[in-house]
Every structure is written in C-alpha cells, then in structure tokens.
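User: Okay, second chain of the day. Same drill as before: sequence in, structure tokens out.
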Amino acid sequence: MMTSVDTELIRVLADPLRLQIVTLLAHETLCTTHLVEETGARQTNLSNHLRVLREAGVVETEPCGRFTYYKLRPDVIESLAGSFAELAATARAAAEADVKRSCP
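Assistant: Same drill. Structure tokens below.
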C-alpha cells in the first residue's frame, strides 16, 4: 500500500526538471555547475529543485571546496519502486481473481 512518504516522493519526482536531475545523478555525482550545463536550467531554479530533492531525502550533498556535489540515494528510489511493485502485484492478483465491487 502506498504510504504518505511514497505519495510525497511521487509528487517530488513528478516535476520534469527534478526527474531529469535524478536521472543525471543516477549516472554520476554532479555539482550545480554540471547540472546547469546538462539541463540548461537557470542556477537559481536548479538550486530550488535541488533543495526540494534534498529535503525529500532523494539526494544528499557532499561539500568539496567551494562546490557542493549532489548524489542520488538509490535506497529511496528502490523503496518507491518496491511500493509500485507491490501495487502491480495486488492489481495482477485482483485481475486474475476478477475482483469487482457490485454497483448498488
């Protein structure tokens, strides 16, 4: 069953730019400068999206001199994927058993 945490993560990842950031960070740890280059987004806009991702626990930061690197937390993505897998299994079982509620 989807939890409120899952619902919040879905909302956070539903934004196209945030999903693009997560996809890029799945491949490598990047700093804001790299993400600006890769996405074409303005630095202030990108920083706001990174803050949302950080507060949701999707990414973590790693200071390196005057730069901040961002790293994806795969455990968070795996947890969300697990919730979707459970939802799919429930739907498959209901379809196979032809479970339907009768109309009044």
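Residues 60 and 71 are 5 Å apart (CA to CA).

User: Thanks, on to the next one.
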